[in-house]
Fold:
Amino acid sequence: MATLKDVALLAGVGMSTASRAISGAGPVSAEAMKKVQAAIEQLNFRPSSIGRSLSAQSLGMIGIFAPSFFGAYYGTILKQTDIELRAMRRHVVVATGCGDGTPRDEAIEAVKFLIGRDCDGIVVLGHDLYDEDLISLQKMHPKMAFLNRRSPQLPEASFCPDHYHGGELAAQTLLQAGHRELAVISGPSATSDNKERLDGFFAELQRNGIARSAVQLIESDFSREGGFGATQRLIGDGHKFTGLFCANDEMAVGALSCFHRAGISVPGDVSIVGYDDDYSAEFSSPGLTSVHIPMQQLTQNAVRWLLNQCYGTQHEIVRDFPVTVTMRGSVAQRG
Structure:
């Protein structure tokens, strides 16, 4: 069985260079990396994960906490995390917040689980966590990045778009299409990013002479089932509206299905704006107009920042994530 020493000799590099090339921890020139990779292939070398972990005092794993595994939104985040880690020969460990406790308690327990598994770093999607929770968890494990969450106390570790502006854009899209009788299906009121997008939405309406009290709002849970049920309530209440803002695309897809079954045309009778612009928006019928949040880029930069902290890589980090609107067929001009 080939050893690290055999790889180094065949590649014509030092043992430390070969070790860095294999582990991804530390600088290696492109030429040296090419030689080491050629030697690994020729010798069919397979490094021992246990030995590597002991020598590096690292398990080579990054943890990620997500409130759920389901839906296009979380799928995008998990896939991009895995792509970034595999490029560094690292692996991802995923914990979810599903359980019998409150979303906040489940989130704290899941992050502590990842800390207890000696993950080198942890990505947290913590919209159910309080600011003090973020600080407390970061003290337990300093190498932690917070995705889609803004923390004034931990600005370097926070990666979040401008959800307030996203809400403004959603309102502008409906207003510019001539809709002034509006309804909203929101996510859980306690979640920080939901609150920000709704604040932006209603601020834009206020600037255009529409009071918050004039808009029917139903709180839901960010799921398709929740969007379907909330839409049933809107229809049943008899409140007149021609424009609907759903605080994420999952709920918007549920709303589209409910309207279809009720014989209500979209966008003929009601125009819908979603939020996130995940891949379900493009393939819904009609295509869903949605506020575009660049989650792939957000995830990429959060993970790369964490890799820099954990393994000394030199990834360039971007913190500007423009929010836009992707127009599709679910919004029509009001006649």
User: Anything to note?
Assistant: The radius of gyration is 24 Å. The first strand starts at residue 61 and ends at 66. Residues 49-57 have pLDDT under 50 and may be disordered. The first helix runs from residue 4 to 11.
